[in-house]
Protein: ATP-binding protein
Organism: Sphaerisporangium album
Amino acid sequence: MRSEPSDRDYLAGGAQLAKIVIGGAFGVGKTTFVATLSEVRPLRTEEPMTQASIGVDDLRGRPDKSTTTVGLDWGRLTIDDDLVLFLFGAPGQARFQHIWQETARGAWGALILADTRHLEQSFDSLGLVEEMELPYAVAINDFPDSPSYLEADLRQALDLPATTPLVTCNALSQRSAAQALTALLQYLMTL
């Protein structure tokens, strides 16, 4: 990555600006993913979880989770002089679906993060991108206690078309997160 250019550089250089949505279920690592790749301090709308989330937000396998995104996350990643990505992390809970839909409007595509401990929680996000006809890739975020499955089994469980990229990543690793994002971008270039 290069050093942070100013807004003026973008306008003068004529770089193309592209929106990419980072989606997925509650607690799957979207905020972490955006923060890991952003070349600027990311915008976050994380708020402490309250008693109101008891029985609504599933904390199984997430004992240390104490905050949740209530709006969106935003980060910026300069690919080169011609392309700058705006990464928008959308909230994962169904009650924020309207924010997800508005965030996805005008996006090039979406990277849906999934967690093998809770694959069924990915269905809402996958349904949204398919309903919106938004091209997407799926990245299995590899948590330390996540079970591993064969790619064919994951594709079947998630009902993924053969052409949809499916990769594994670690949202805490810049290199790994970048590889997942690259899989999406390469796919988008084939459409």
Observations:
- The domain at 16-44+70-189 is CATH 3.40.50.300 (Rossmann fold).
- Confidence is low (pLDDT under 50) at residues 1-12.
- The CA atoms of residues 120 and 158 lie 8 Å apart.
